[in-house]
Amino acid sequence: MKFARAGIWSLALSVLVAMPAMAQTYGSPDSGADGLYLRGEGGWSHMNDMTGDTSGGTSYTSEQNEGYIVGGAVGWKFDQLRLELGLDFSNSGIKSVDLNNAGGAVSGEVHNTATMVNALWDFRTGTFIVPYIGIGVGTSYVTLDNVRRNGVLLSDSSQTVFAYQPMIGVNFQLTDHLALGLQYRYFATVDPSFNYAPGGKLGVKNDSHNVLAGLTWSFGVPTPPPPSAPAPAVYQLPPPVINPQAGPPPVPQPQVFVVFFEFNQAALTPEGRHVAQQAASAFQQDGATTIELTGYTDLTGQTRYDLDLSRRRALAVRDYLVQLGVPVGAISANWHGKQDPRVPTTGREPQNRRVEIDIP
Question: If pLDDT is split at 50, 70 and 90, which confidence band does 22 have?
Fold first, then answer.
């Protein structure tokens, strides 16, 4: 059992460490809205052996079958912190009971009805994958339900005791309202003491390993801003009108092209490649010597993640211009993340996901 417990913790910690790296590639940088939420959950429960002694000195060990756990929680999200009140019921049938190391035919079940106050901390990844850790404290109403050995009643008793549960998990933010979650939870209580039918009291350990899937519905989602006009494929200042009778031509005006990107992506779209081709042609035809690239994102992600995303966008445009024959030494690439939005909105604004190409 020690090896199984170590394996479960190792797997859970590995998932937590790997999630931020995995999440760089996928989905929405939304960890859910602040405010009220409800969660329903259920899954597998593995009870450790219940060991202890009776007040008469008899040693007691029971082994349980694999069981189940169901329940839910109501909570409130404050940015990365979540506080919630949870209620769960777990059940495991008793597989064997040894009294002073002597077995026999057994029947009965073990129930835990836990009421817990949980505190959880979400780790922001800039995507729809949100790993978290947490701790819960509360009480459990523990029941040995009609436990018999060789037909003789041993205990049919309950007690409410202090309980605690460290947990680790991940939520997948499917929509603004709905998240799908997976969680590992170690649940334990102080040793309950039950009435022992042959006489006296029975005190035993009570702990379990639990893996749950859950669905969370958030109520605090803000109304999204109205959609803006579609982003134009190209933004270019018109060339100056030259009158041959008006003397020397004016100084050439800088040309500006804008390459737009899909949400949370740094790969050029077909429209983006077309814009870059136009910029490369203008650079070659005008005999320009430099091109300046500036990458941006919309305002939905985290500052650090958005800065890296704008960098990847600027470098993607630079690499494509080099493929089109623009000397790499002529290209200056910069990136500013969510700074200087074209449209000042916190939503998923297409015109803010861009790389501006300036040809002085």
Answer: very low
